[in-house]
Write a structure and sequence with these properties.
about 120 residues, 7-stranded mixed beta sheet, 11 strands, about 0% helix
Length: about 120
């Protein structure tokens, strides 16, 4: 299984970015997918998740109303549109696939078994 995240970069506060994650080696449309982030010195935290069909999404409290997760099952890709970015959004962002044998909530990091390499997002003030 490979998950390749891209789209990070340097952006000013208030700006936008769109992250992409290309998946291979798994039955993509059978997996919940998630985005997590980790800032220096902090634990990895949940950002957003999306169900197999895309019909159900969940967001972390700090990004609700600003970030949108979506997926394209035909292309085996998941996206994270980030608007109104803040300096506190600065982190390495990771995409991950939720284990088919995990029945816990999709914001639980332990439920994800495959991770991408991460893409850096830096928001300047």
């Amino acid at each position: 299984v490979q998950l390749q995240a891209s789209g990070g970069g340097l952006v000013q506060a208030g700006g936008s970015l769109r992250l992409s994650c290309a998946a291979s080696g798994l039955a993509f449309d059978s997996h919940y997918m998630g985005w997590f982030r980790q800032a220096p010195g902090r634990e990895r935290e949940f950002v957003a998740s999306i169900s197999w069909s895309g019909g159900s999404t969940l967001y972390g409290d700090s990004v609700k109303g600003r970030f949108t997760i979506s997926r394209d099952n035909a292309k085996n890709m998941v996206f994270l549109r980030m608007n109104s970015l803040k300096p506190e959004d600065t982190a390495v962002y990771y995409c991950a696939s939720k284990s088919l044998s995990d029945y816990g909530p999709p914001n639980r990091i332990q439920g994800y078994d495959y991770w991408g390499q991460g893409t850096q997002v830096t928001v300047s003030s």
